[in-house]
Write a structure and sequence with these properties.
About 0% of the residues lie in helices and about 50% in strands. It has no helices and 30 strands. The chain starts with 7 loop residues before the first strand and ends with a strand.
Length: about 350
């Protein structure tokens, strides 16, 4: 992969009232088609997926990015999709870093599959069969229980794999109040043995007991339309839900589902990440081309102009937010990584 260009400054717009935090933002040019990112504390690298175009997708890469040099230091191309004869590759979209086993799990959305790569050299460890996880979106690993969880908005099931043996396990069926839910993002609270999923079509949060593998609770998210992003603060047991169509963030109490805060953030609020170091939430507003920075009390600290379509947010061990920005319409400021740092 070609190295990114020299970083360019990106302005952060503060709210009208004086915030407790200030932020600085820096943009780094990246190879085309970047999608999601995941930080590995073990490798001290940010891993990034990229996929270009619609089927047949022939260009896709798994990238390793050095946060110190701000450069792509390694790249791997997924294998061809064996079930097709049109040259489509097993394009990578979602991912998570599993440090205990030196692994990276990716979702292959177009083929409805998942794959496992080695962190150290990006070599492929295992490619699961097509349609193992229809329209696979997000993946998370519970290292303590050796479980990989994959969401699929095409079905009301969280797919489960053994991350040690790399074998599929029985899935977890989600049951809502009405129509079948379509799970999008996932969030893991390992300390309280809970996996959380948010439903796109029913504006609900589902809590799964990771010890039993069963649905433990279901909470409605009032006013949310097109809920797609979710994050968890394990310390206070607060759930953060971003909703695309309503362009907002709702904070729930994970113990009883009470709504604690509700805040408009911007058009197309797609994903959210919670930073336990500075205790800040970051919301990627894909339609607005901004990232909202909010404190744990629901007060907006900054609106960062990222340009184009901010898609996903990964946090490193120091609490730095790394935003993958896709190529938006009529805006050349896509295919880049924006680093956001918070300061008192």
């Amino acid at each position: 992969a070609p190295p990114p260009s020299a970083p360019a400054a990106s302005a952060a717009n503060p709210p009208a009232s004086a915030p407790a935090w200030s932020v600085t933002a820096q943009a780094i040019d990246m190879p085309p088609g970047i999608y999601q990112g995941a930080y590995s504390a073990r490798a001290q690298r940010l891993y990034i997926t990229s996929a270009i175009g619609r089927p047949p997708v022939k260009e896709s890469r798994l990238l390793a990015f050095d946060p110190t040099s701000l450069r792509v230091v390694a790249s791997a191309t997924p294998p061809l999709q064996a079930s097709r004869a049109d040259g489509q590759v097993q394009a990578v979209y979602g991912l998570t870093a599993e440090d205990d086993r030196n692994q990276i799990w990716t979702t292959n959305t177009r083929s409805g599959s998942v794959a496992v790569y080695r962190q150290s050299d990006l070599s492929l460890i295992k490619q699961f069969p097509d349609d193992a996880t229809p329209h696979a979106r997000d993946v998370l690993v519970d290292a303590a229980r050796h479980r990989a969880y994959v969401s699929s908005p095409a079905a009301n099931v969280i797919h489960v794999f053994d991350s040690a043996t790399l074998q599929p396990l029985p899935g977890i069926t989600l049951t809502g109040a009405g129509e079948a839910p379509k799970p999008m993002s996932l969030a893991l609270d390992a300390d309280h043995q809970r996996l959380y999923a948010v439903s796109l079509n029913t504006a609900e949060v589902f809590a799964i007991d990771t010890a039993t593998g069963r649905q433990a609770a279901r909470y409605p998210v009032p006013g949310a339309q097109g809920a797609s992003g979710i994050a968890i603060d394990s310390q206070t047991q607060r759930i953060y839900v971003a909703a695309q169509k309503s362009g907002d963030l709702t904070v729930l109490d994970a113990r009883d589902g009470r709504v604690l805060h509700h805040q408009a953030t911007g058009a197309g609020a797609l994903n959210v990440a919670f930073d336990p170091v500075h205790r800040l939430a970051y919301v990627a507003n894909r339609g607005a081309g901004t990232v909202t920075v909010m404190d744990e009390h629901g007060a907006i600290q900054a609106q960062v102009d990222t340009g184009s379509a901010p898609n996903h947010i990964a946090l490193d061990a120091q609490g730095t937010a790394w935003v993958t920005v896709k190529q938006g319409k009529n805006d050349p400021r896509g295919d880049r990584l924006v680093r956001i740092e918070a300061h008192r």
